[in-house]
Amino acid sequence: MVDISANLSGIHFDSCIMNASGPLDTTLDELVDIAISAAGGVVMKSCTIEAREGNPSPRYMDIEWGSINSMGLPNLGYKYYNEIVPKLKSYGKPLIASIAGVASEEYKKIVEAFNSSNVDILEINLSCPNVVGKPQIGYDFEMSEEIMNVVGDVSEKPWGVKLPPYFDFIHFEEMATILNNTKISFIVSINSIGNALFIDWNSEKVVIKPKGGFGGLGGKYIKPTALANVRKFHELLNKKIKIVGVGGIYTGIDAFEFILSGATLLQLGTSFSQEGPPIFERISKELCQIMGKKGYTTLDDFRGKLKVIE
Ligand code: SIN
Asked: What is the pTM of this model?
């Protein structure tokens, strides 16, 4: 019998596969669709102090090997997500609130509000590339550290940070040093690759409106970068900090590769947006089949055991 359950901060997930904050998780109806699917947990859209309309449309486009988006954090405000916690918890799955902001006081206020709910876990989003005029916090190490210290002081829930992709070993090392000195339980790695440009050569035009067409790249384009981030952080972080892998997971093979690189849980963004809730059951089955063929019965049998060429 193959078991793909996982544990994060003492919270049990029947399946290691769930949605990523972003697509199809803004309204209660969308979140219920995830809760009644085979997803192992439910992640809510990153919320801000005030509700946001987000950027002008078109702001999301499916493209050849994935997606480009500049949504701009459209969400219904943290009070809405706090109010729907009891309803979502009634489906019996771990529930994750995702929190976005531009300053540490905003994160503090929202974390404090969720402390008094029965949400299970908090994901602190430090990596949205699409808020016009605001940099991705995860590329500002000082600011990231300040926010993590503030959240660490107030959070009564297990919490972690959603990071942008890093590309340079020095940056991995700097961020890992900060993470190893905070109270985080996990990282989510990676958010979309920010400020990519996709062009429709026929019309000679960009495909999304905000920021002159620049947006976050997701899907198959980003899997190798996501795997590299999971792997590098697996090498650098202390083993109490778990890794939630995200970026280009479309199949059981992709899921297997992320666990092999060191991930504990997995999230689906673009692929979930394209295929909808049935994707959780499909990828879970494919992962179980691969594990069965290889003689693995739990994720621990191969987690992090990627081989290198000597
Ligand atoms: C968005 O709403 O712009 C995407 C969210 C994110 O990248 O964190």
From this structure: 0.98
